[in-house]
Amino acid sequence: MSSDMPPAAKRVPAERTHHGDTVIDEYAWLIKKDDPDTVAYLEAENAYTNEATAHLKPLQDSIFQEIKGRTLETDLSVPTRKGAWWYYSRTEEGKQYGIQCRVAADGDDPPVLTPGEPLPGEQILLDGNELAGDSPFFAIGTSSVSPDGTMLAYSTDFSGDERFTLRFKSLSTGEVLGDEIPGIFYGGAWAGDGSAFFYTMVDEAWRPNRVFRHTLGSADPDPVVFQEDDERFWIGIGLSRSERFLVLGAHSKITSEVRVLDANNPLGEFTVIRPRETGVEYHVDHQNDRFLVLHNQGAANFELASAPVDDPAVWTAVIPHREDTRLLDVDAFQSHLVVHFRRDGLTGLRILPEGAEPYEIEFPEPLYDVAPSGNSEFVTSRLRLGYTSMVTPPSVYDFDLPSHTLILLKRRPVLGGYDPADYEQFREWATAEDGTKIPISLVIRKGTPRPAPTLLYGYGSYENSIDPYFSVARLSLLDRGFAFAVAHVRGGGEMGRHWYEDGKLNRKKNTFTDFVAVARHLKGEWSGPIIARGGSAGGLLMGAVANLAPEEFTAIVAEVPFVDALNTILDPSLPLTVIEWDEWGDPLHNADVYAYMKSYSPYENVRDGVYPPILAITSFNDTRVFYHEPAKWIARLRAVARGGPFLLKTEMGAGHGGRSGRYDAWHEEAFTLSWILDRVGVAQ
């Protein structure tokens, strides 16, 4: 194949008609995953991309070595207390995957660990490297120790399709039991007495819809304890921190229903906290004689309520609704509550001690992200939390409740002389077309000349927030004169529930116009050339802005991009489609939704115009955004648009998250960053 001639799609087009609109899809044949011609086409695309980027190999290798050189490859997590043990994970130089371990507890302070030196009495629970063997892909879906600490339930995936095989290991003998259950979903929960494990399975649309109970040692078929027949809902199950209740949640994008079961009576029946009511979302935790219920009934930004265990449908406000504060989650402990919230675009923590005044934990930086993390014990006077910013590496603290003191336990090491003082982070505000102020988070190395080339990241769906975060790989851009910015566009949750509502359904285009407004705001004082980047639903954003304002971007990176949105949401047989109708609308049955989605869906709107260079990265086994979406999009760009080049790179043995091993992931990121740098002429 000539290096200047990409592969061409040569199949019979498909025709579809909806609401009187007939559309020809020239590349629909690419959906046939098992067709050898499809595989050959993707492999030819990979060969073309490899040729087109061969000159970047030295830069890619340099960036990989920088990422590797800044990473403490032999490292450990901070131990977390659960019962009679401290649990932690560690990594070893040269190995792709982590190793899960524990040591017996002695006192309340976590043991001091030295990288590369296992603690005396260390017990290895799971070694991901041994489990992975020679498989090119490996992932763990669940790893859960029974309440008494004697058994481990774990599940593994060797293809990236997110279907896991569940196994059980005796932590007393190290023996893996004969019980083996294929095809399960993420997560699961132990019964309180450790006699049974509850797990979920998906239907043909990849929707977790059934909960099963497995009794250890039983050869009988596992009974279904709950089945959700409404295609808009998915389910999950967990054990409350108090270990008193199994909590089974059924959720759609806009509605919730929660059931509970005495954890020590695994053969019993689940009971409903409050029956589902369209538009009412709620989550439940347990504390002593009450449930804590976080809900949005008459409270757009959510309210915290309590409910008696013996009458859980009666809710009494604990923290009333506030227009300026979005309540995200509640963690219940024996003598206090911790509420995770969002205000002014930043996250925070509010402590509600029993018998004392509530208060919030203060943090010094102008931009940061904080959340509870690793709090397994119900009876404790300490709160474990994770903290990071755009210049501060991920940090683990214990907050001592009696003294109101933050105790730094660990900050992720960044080797090679990294100093946070060498970098600056800023908050900017762009003005959208309708006058709305859009927050922007920025980081740049001090002394970098401005305007600087800028990598602008965006997502903007599902109320997911892209909070300020640290990245070792990003330093390879910043140290070469780049700025990095996050556009906190509507459709995410950064500014509260209304921020999400203003970027979904028939207001989805706000997500795209917000991103363009941010790019225009940055140009001049802040930014020279702007490279846009986004993944999954953020890949939809990339495709939309490429059509909307291609002149604003020097290049675009779209990772596992949801760019064939209309065709996917029209097909209820595809995984997750019906669930997604509450997010995007139902174009199959509603002509107005069809017309609106067709007006912005990236694949539908490629036009004869000059587009910037585009790199689309996808995975062959992705079960969330199929590989054929970016494959079709790149093919249509080549056929219709001008400019480019338009490149497609498919990981043939990976899923939605890309390659699984850490070194493989570093190589992948180094490839992407080298392509970004090349777009602005940086060659080393």
UniProtKB/TrEMBL annotation:
Ranges for domain Peptidase S9 prolyl oligopeptidase catalytic: 469-680
GO molecular function, one term: serine-type endopeptidase activity
SUPFAM superfamilies assigned to the protein according to its UniProt record, in alphabetical order: alpha/beta-Hydrolases, Peptidase/esterase 'gauge' domain
Keyword RNA-binding among UniProt keywords: no
Domain of life: Bacteria
UniProt keyword terms in alphabetical order: Hydrolase, Protease, Serine protease
GO biological process terms, semicolon-separated: proteolysis
Pfam families: Peptidase_S9, Peptidase_S9_N
InterPro entries, alphabetized: AB_hydrolase_fold, Pept_S9A_N, Peptidase_S9_cat, Peptidase_S9A, Serine_Peptidase_S9A
Keyword Hydrolase in annotation: yes
Domain Peptidase S9A N-terminal: 6-410
Family affiliation: Belongs to the peptidase S9A family.
Name of the protein described by the UniProt record: Protease
Organism: Acrocarpospora pleiomorpha
Organism classification: Bacteria, Bacillati, Actinomycetota, Actinomycetes, Streptosporangiales
